Structures are given as structure tokens and as C-alpha cells.
């Protein structure tokens, strides 16, 4: 079960690296196609705000990657739980305030990872 949890954690990290790239480096190009409901005339004026959001996504990815590199399995789980919880809270907030789709894309994988990590932690 821990292996599956690590795979989910890695996938969430990769997803957040994609968000980092999209928001920091492709906001006025690729992001226009991804965020179709966002007013097209606002991409350029919100470029620095999106880059800031991307930076936060990078911090989440860094924490998740760090959790995968920790040798102590208990600490590895605790650190992964913390960062997956941050992702889940952000995803739930995004679903409530922006789009329900954010729950499926961001919060759901993090919540699955959390459940698997907790099951691993309490089954041993």
C-alpha cells in the first residue's frame, strides 16, 4: 500500500510542477487554452499574479518530492501527509471558490494519497 501511496504522491507532485510551468511560464500562451472560461483579455494583466500562484505550486511539488526522498518511513509519511493535506485544502477551496473541476483534478488525488498513507501508518 505504501508503494501505491508513493506513486500517487509522485503524480500529485508532477501535477503541481505542471501547474508551476503553466502559471509561471505559459500563462499568456498555453494557459489561454487550458483556462477557456477565464476572460482572454485578463491573461496579460494577471501574468505576475499567476506566476505567484505557480511559485506556490512549486513549493507544494518540492515538499512532495522531498517526502519521497526521506529515508525514515514514518517521517516520510508525516511529511507527505502534510503536503498532500495542503494540496487537498487548496483543491477544496478552489472547488468552492472557482470551479468544481478543481476538486477532481487537485483535491481528489491528494485525498486518495492521504487515505493510503493513513492506512499504511495505522496498519503497521
Automatic annotation (TrEMBL):
Residues passing through the membrane, by range: 6-28, 49-69, 75-95, 102-122
* Protein name as annotated: DUF1304 domain-containing protein
What keywords sit in the KW lines? Membrane, Transmembrane, Transmembrane helix
Q: Where is the signal peptide?
A: none
- The superkingdom listed in its UniProt entry is Bacteria
State if S-adenosyl-L-methionine is listed as a keyword.
no
Q: Please name one Pfam family that this protein belongs to.
A: DUF1304
Amino acid at each position: 500500500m505504501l508503494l501505491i501511496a508513493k506513486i500517487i504522491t509522485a503524480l500529485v507532485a508532477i501535477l503541481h510542477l505542471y501547474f508551476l510551468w503553466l502559471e509561471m511560464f505559459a500563462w499568456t500562451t498555453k494557459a489561454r487554452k487550458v483556462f477557456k472560461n477565464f476572460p482572454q483579455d485578463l491573461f496579460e494583466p494577471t501574468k505576475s499574479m499567476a506566476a505567484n500562484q505557480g511559485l506556490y505550486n512549486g513549493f507544494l511539488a518540492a515538499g512532495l518530492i522531498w517526502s519521497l526522498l526521506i529515508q525514515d518511513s514514518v517521517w516520510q509519511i508525516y511529511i507527505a501527509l502534510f503536503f498532500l493535506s495542503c494540496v487537498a485544502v487548496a483543491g477544496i477551496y478552489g472547488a468552492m471558490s472557482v470551479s468544481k473541476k478543481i476538486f477532481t483534478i487537485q483535491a481528489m488525488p491528494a485525498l486518495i494519497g492521504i487515505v493510503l498513507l493513513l492506512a499504511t501508518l495505522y496498519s503497521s
